Amino acid sequence: VNSCVLSYVDPANGKRKFWEMGSTATRPGRIRAEERKFEKCIAKVLAFLGYLVQGELKTREPIELTLGLLLPLDEFGDRHVLADWLRHGVENFEYNGVLINNIKLAKIDVKPEGYGIYKASGVDSALVVNWGHSDLTILVFKNGKLIQNQSDTWPLAGMHGFMKCLDFPFTYELRDAQIIGAAGRKMDSRILKELSQTGSAAEMTRLKNAIITARGEFWQDRSEDFQAVSLAGLDGVLVGGGTARFLEVELNRFYE
């Protein structure tokens, strides 16, 4: 989607909200890693549904849908509130100025982030490590069921935490973290030069040393968290997320 303007009545306060969404709305800026995904989920879902009706199905006939969503584990307790708000929002919203009111959500199935990794594995009992940019979540499944009192989310413990350890100036956290990840374990200088002010050999050496140091500090903190997680009664460990790829070597050594 190149661009869209979405408006809907916010169920939280009854006021109309407006969002610009799509590729033209993407601008580098400060990452608010502490923001809850729940708060933006309604806008994202309604924008997708508006595009589906206008851009793909092109119909004004009634549509009945089953919706599947993922929430961070520490927001999973709000899933029933989210479902109610979505049902309210979908009744009357505008997509690029066109009223959309022909959608009915027959079912809303909310799962914790990382559930898809588990479901696709075919394993009954496993530890799921879902390591994104903002948070690190561990899910414990035993005999096909999520054991919530053994599962946990560590806020701000994703790549965001690594960037906080990095002793090197950066401008846009998410973009610069992606560059560091793309540079790989060997820290490809051709890629890392995008973070350099001068491109000099001295600056590149300083950047690489900063990455090595930050990686070590960040992994030390996280490995202590992992040590507290019991694998008793589990058949394996399933890992996903960009930060997990960045620390793939460390994770493989830890769980070998």
Quick overview:
This protein is an alpha+beta fold and about 260 residues long. It is about 40% helix and about 25% strand.
Topology:
Elements: E1 4-9, E2 16-21, H1 38-57, E3 63-71, H2 79-89, E4 93-95, E5 98-100, E6 103-112, H3 115-121, E7 126-131, E8 136-142, E9 145-146, E10 152-154, H4 159-165, H5 173-183, H6 189-192, H7 201-227, E11 237-240, H8 242-246, H9 248-255
Parallel strand pairs: 3-6, 7-11
Antiparallel strand pairs: 1-2, 1-4, 4-5, 7-8, 8-9, 8-10
Helix pairs in contact: 1-2, 4-7
What is the number of strand segments? 11
Strand content: 15-25%
Distance between the termini: 43 Å
Cα-atom radius of gyration: 21 Å
As a percent range, the share of helical residues equals 25-40%
Rough outline: globular
User: Main sheet?
Assistant: 5 strands, mixed
- Name the poorly predicted regions: none
Element-by-element helix/strand order: EEHEHEEEHEEEEHHHHEHH
SS-derived structural category:
alpha+beta
- Our count of helices gives 9
Mean pLDDT across every amino acid position: 91
Notes on the structure:
The chain has 256 residues and is of the alpha+beta class. The protein is 39% helix and 23% strand. The chain has 9 helices and 11 strands. It has helices spanning 38-57, 79-89, 115-121, 159-165, 173-183, 189-192, 201-227, 242-246, 248-255; strands at 4-9, 16-21, 63-71, 93-95, 98-100, 103-112, 126-131, 136-142, 145-146, 152-154, 237-240. The strands form 3 sheets. Strands 7, 8, 9, 10 and 11 form a 5-stranded mixed beta sheet that branches. It has a 4-stranded antiparallel beta sheet with strand order 2-1-4-5, covered by helices on one side. The chain has a two-stranded parallel sheet with strand order 3-6. α1 packs parallel to α2. The longest helix has 27 residues, at 201-227.
